[in-house]
Structures are given as structure tokens and as C-alpha cells.
Amino acid sequence: MGVDLRQVVAGVLTLTMFVMLGNMIKRDHFDSVEGKFPGARDVEFDSEKVSEQGLVTFSKKSTNGPWVEGGLDLKPCWKESNFDDVESKGFVTFSLTNGPEYHVSQIADAVVVARYIGATLVLPDIRGNKPGDERKFEEIYDVEKFVKSLVGVVKVVKGLPEDVSIRDFAVVKVPNRVSEDHIAEQIEPVFRTNSNVRLATFFPSVNMRKTTKTSASDPVACLAMFGTLELQPEVNEVVDSMIERLRTLSRKSDGRFIAVDLRVEILDKKGCHGSSATGTKSCFNAQEIAIFLRKIGFGKDTTIYLTQPRWDESLDVLKDIFPKTYTKESILPADKKAKFLESEDSEFEKVIDFYMCSQSDVFVPAISGLFYANVAGKRIASGKTQILVPADIPGTSSSVTNHFSPYISKKNHLAHSCFC
């Protein structure tokens, strides 16, 4: 019996169509899922495939991993000359809390509020998680830079006049990324009545995606978030020395290193659970991070910095695969350990981690949340766009271009509204 070639061709075409349809359904399903950390909503913690010919340029120097060259050199979209002076009437006070990833947003909200209501901003103090754990702003950040950057935007003073008591301040709650409508309806009336207000910022979500809605306060928020905070010289020197140490240890990778936000305590508290539908996860442990990095092409000589405060035995599996894996205690200058490693929950350690992750060649967030979101913002502002979101990869390998953060691949981070 002869074979009808037309039937064979038709069969092949039908099979091909089913395969294509299956891939489309699978792709749409995965793209619609956004991994979220328990208690922290609206975080871009899904990975996104990007074109190797478009968004990224691979380094031609290194053969020890899929290192990507730096991104575009962006410039601020805001112009400081466009800010009109505002007469100050009364004071706004606030505190920086919960670590540098929150400080960035708290500063932005306070500056936006103070400018809108025409108040003088009082330099904030810094408060830790434990009662009595307070520091002066200048212990961590550069006061001169902060004050100078806000000239013409809001007036900043280091403290209240002697005739003004903090006890007389009305406390108002401020949602992160506060809107002008909220200020006009909820904060300004209180300020007009009391002349002085104390802000308490809360985070109904950790959404750092840009929006299509614009307002007159956007340039002020951008300046406050990305143009005001710098580390004071001693802290900055410590971070620089740690980065230099890691680059020295990374000679086989042309001085490049990866920073991974992986904190065992948070993993233990929150758990790392996959989505029942897709296997998408909100956090990854040391073994999963090690396997992920190997499967996307990083070699055993790759240098890795972990945000984990002290070494934990659960990290041994990562060090077995990547021997050059370090926590801050092993690379911090010896003469600085007494001050900067005073406790596992110190503000100094949090700040070091935030800036190490912001300046590394590659950033891998093993945990979703505001730390990831605001580190991403700083990296976008400085052109360091290699942010890789982990995944459980089936098979033996995957292209690094499949795992770029949506903040980068979709350019949907708030920072993309602030830099051009």
C-alpha cells in the first residue's frame, strides 16, 4: 500500500501546531505568575527572558561565567533648576527605621510631604529594631551631601529650636509613595492646625514598579530617593575596602563578583515554598542558589558575597560548589570588626549589605521584598543591570538571559521614571 505524501505533510504540520500551542499556553501561564514573599505584596520576583542581541552584552574578557557588561549610562530626568523655593512654616520630623532599604523610601516620602506643605525638614535619627537602638544620621550617612542636595527643594535643619518641643507634634501616618491627594486630604489639614507634624511611614505594599500616572511631586521624589543619601566617609571606606578585597579574590573572573541576598534567619521564619501551579518560589536556600548559578554557567572559581550576618552550616553546600563564598566577617578589615560587627542586627551591617549588593557585578536576590526592590533601583541608577532572579531549572542548564529581573527586562521599576 502506497504512502500518501500529502497525508504525511498534513500530519507533521498538525503536530507542529500542537507543540507551538502548548508552548504558548505554557509561556502565558508562567508570565502571569508573580512570586511573592509572604507579607510583602507587589514585588517583581519572576524572571524574564530577554534577547541576547538587545538588552545585554556579554563580556568578551571572562570565560568563567556569563558576565554581562554594564548597562546604559543613565542621567537624572529631573532638573534641580526647576525647583522653586518654598517658604518654610513649621517643622516635619521623622525617623529612619528597619534598614537602608526602608530609609530610601522614608526619605523620599518625608521630602515630598515637607515640600508640599511648606515645612522645614528636621534631620532624622536612625532607629534599629531593638528598644534604645538609636543612632545619629551622621553616623551612617553624609549630612553635608544630604543638606546640599535639597537646597532649593526643602529647608533642612539638624535639630529643633529650643522653643519647639517634640511633644507638641501631631503624629500622622504616611503610606509609602505618598500621593499629593493623600497629603492634601490627610496631612496638610493637621499641619495647618498644629504647625508641626511627625511622620510615621508605613508600607501597605512594597510595590516599586513605575506607574503611568504622573504628578508635580515626581521630580522631588526622584531627587530624594536617588540623589540625597550617600554613606559617610568611614562607612563608605569600609564598603570600598570589602569590594576591593572581593575583586582581588576574583582574578580568574577579571575582578567580578556576585552578591546574593541570602539570610538564613529569614528563610527559616518564612519558609521557601513553591507555587502549587508552577513551582515559582518566593525564596531560595543555599543549595538551590548554588545549583541555579551552576546551571546558568558560573564556574567554581566565581566569587560570591552573602548578606548572611555570620556563617551558618546550611551554607556549606554553597561553599562546596563555590569555594570562594564569603560573609562580611571574613572580608571586613580587622581593625573595623569591633565597630561594624558589634551585633548581628546592627544598622552598620544592614547598610554594608545594601551597598555591597548595589555595587556588585551581579545581584541575586534569594529573598523577595523591599531589599531586592530598592537595591534594584540603585543598580538601575548606576547602570549595573545584571540582576538575576533564581529559579528551579529543569535539566542541566539554562541561558542567563532567561532569568533577568522584570525590573530590568520590562523596565518597569520606578527608577526608570527617574533616569533617562
TrEMBL record:
The keyword Transferase applies. Keywords: Carbohydrate metabolism, Fucose metabolism, Glycosyltransferase, Transferase. Coiled coil: none annotated. It comes from the Eukaryota. The keyword Transferase applies. GO terms for biological process: fucose metabolic process. It holds the Pfam family O-FucT. InterPro entries: FucosylTrfase_pln (IPR024709), GDP-Fuc_O-FucTrfase (IPR019378). One of its GO terms (molecular function) is glycosyltransferase activity. Gene3D superfamilies: 3.40.50.11350. Signal peptide: none annotated. PANTHER family: O-FUCOSYLTRANSFERASE FAMILY PROTEIN, PROTEIN MANNAN SYNTHESIS-RELATED 1. Belongs to the glycosyltransferase GT106 family. This is O-fucosyltransferase family protein.
